[in-house]
User: Fold these one by one.
Assistant:
Number 1:
Amino acid sequence: MENRRNFIKKTVLGGMAMLAGARAWSNEVPDVVVKDVKALAYQKGSDRALYVRIEASNGTIGWGECSPNGIGVIQTLVKDLLAPLVTGASPFDTEKLWEEMFWTNHDLGAGGALTYAIAGVDNALWDLKGKLLGVPVYALIGGKLRDRVPAYGGFGINGGKVPIAKATQRAVGLAEHGFKIVKLRAQIRENNLNPADDPTIEYYKAIRKALPSEVTLFVDPNEGYTAFRAIEVGRALADLGMPYFEAPCPNEAMSDTRQAVEALDIPVLTGEKCYNRWMFRELIEKANPDMINPDFSKSGGITEGLKICHLAQVHHKMIVPHNTKPMLASAATIQILASIPNCGPMVEYIETSLYPGICSIFDQGIEFSDGEMLLPKGDGLGLVINEKRAKQLFGY
Ligand SMILES: [Mg+2]
């Protein structure tokens, strides 16, 4: 019931806001529903993306990104399974919609393809919520603790099949591009577990020598080692100055990761292949890594991502996101990092020049400056897509 004091307060505050030219806030959630959900795929070689475009009944549009691995499969999941659940609903009911999208379909696999698909829809809903309210996402999920995070660039050596001179050139190129942290992806597992001719240390030494001393270099063997080899290589690299060690052992061998965590004097980070809060709970309980690296375009989007970050906080873990997409996925990532108290020392990022097609539809994209990813200024996820160019690129 409206009492007299509330009425006077609202009237006075409303009048003051209008005098100041500010938004006159109502205490009602905007009365809109989701009118249309599109899953839009673009692929030209490695320049590829799967975007979700959600239009509200008042014409406001939100955009989100799914990881595009298996692009056609994920597109179909969004189109056939998720879009019907979201269409007609309030875009503000992200928690309810996440539960429906996940539990209605989770017998298809509770992590992986399904959470990739949910991530794009959920991130688009958060973008839409912010745009409808005229505020950035970080303001809706906890406010701002920071507006920039050091970013690292990465390159792969395919188990030693990429010539060392070429790998070195690529690493130096990343440093020249402005990255102050660079990651060598050894891609051991793709070739063999614990290979006898392991190239990691030789490449590390050559690339370390070629990089400016102020640039940090660390290694991700891409889950290529059993416990003893992870410890052996991790110690050798730590002696060469490596400050972090990513994913030394597979997700399927968490006790091996735990042995590496306990034996090494440098932090171990892992978790890019965990796709929901329960997978991260198991990882943390069994492997106990110092830092975890969820990918918010794979692990269910911002709604689930916040739960993962909070779970990590309870267990005293830092968040160092996996993020290999230059625009919408990066935007969702930096909005989360802006608002959580356990943001780690860095976030993954990739050069926009590798994605000329997809980046061409943005009037305002992610900014990378002085080796850092910047929190965009703008409503929702903070990016601006040019609708005309998006229509041409995706053909809708
Ligand atoms: Mg990795």
Note: Confidence is low (pLDDT under 50) at residues 11-21.
Number 2:
Amino acid sequence: MLTLRSAPPSPFGRKIKIALSILGLMDQTKIIVADTNDEKDSLRKENPLGKIPCLMDENGTAIYDSFVILDWLNERAGGNRLFPAHGPERTRVLTLNALADGMMDAGVLLIYEQRWREPAMRSDKWTAHHQAKIDRALAVLEAAPPKGPVDIAHIAVACALGYFDLRFAGSWRAKHPKLVAWLDDFAKAVPSFEATRAPA
Ligand SMILES: N[C@@H](CCC(=O)N[C@@H](CS)C(=O)NCC(=O)O)C(=O)O
């Protein structure tokens, strides 16, 4: 069995769960919820960075971060399933995936600003800096939502938007109607998106 350490709200972990489902590998995977705030959680031994997702293969070897896990799963499923093996299309898909991962990173940092810093230490400037990354990325995606068959970038964009729904009350929706429609279509085409929605 594979073991996935993750937690329901994690957008990076959600990408892995959706990929496992698409690749037909969910039956081979045990999911153990991790608490990144708990220093006694074995996660910090599995991934010294203390981050989720972290996947353990059958030998107990830890694989992280989310892109490396997806690359490993893609290989295990025979390759060429989540992203093209080579060429300009591979670069395009992986760049779009990086854009979506960056949106998630910025969103997670905004949440951590609230979670980890005392109110007096919080920086409006720093918050605006990260919010601007999200806003620019959303504008790019609204102008050109992901096209074609579901790939790693589609999964990542959907998980980023799902995270903004969960943590920021869907405030991205009002100004991005094409992305809203795109996410609806994605949810219909990929049932594991709904199945992996974190409770609010
Ligand atoms: N680059 C990492 C980012 C993962 C990440 O930021 N995970 C968050 C949860 S969504 C986490 O583990 N945070 C705990 C911490 O940073 O200590 C990946 O792609 O897997």
Note: The mean pLDDT is 97.
